[in-house]
Amino acid sequence: NAGVTQTPKFQVLKTGQSMTLQCAQDMNHEYMSWYRQDPGMGLRLIHYSVGAGITDQGEVPNGYNVSRSTTEDFPLRLLSAAPSQTSVYFCASSHRLAGDTTGELFFGEGSRLTVL
Amino acid sequence: DAKTTQPTSMDCAEGRAANLPCNHSTISGNEYVYWYRQIHSQGPQYIIHGLKNNETNEMASLIITEDRKSSTLILPHATLRDTAVYYCIVSDYMDSNYQLIWGAGTKLIIKP
Question: What are residue A92's phi and psi, to 5 degrees?
Answer without folding.
Answer: -140, 155
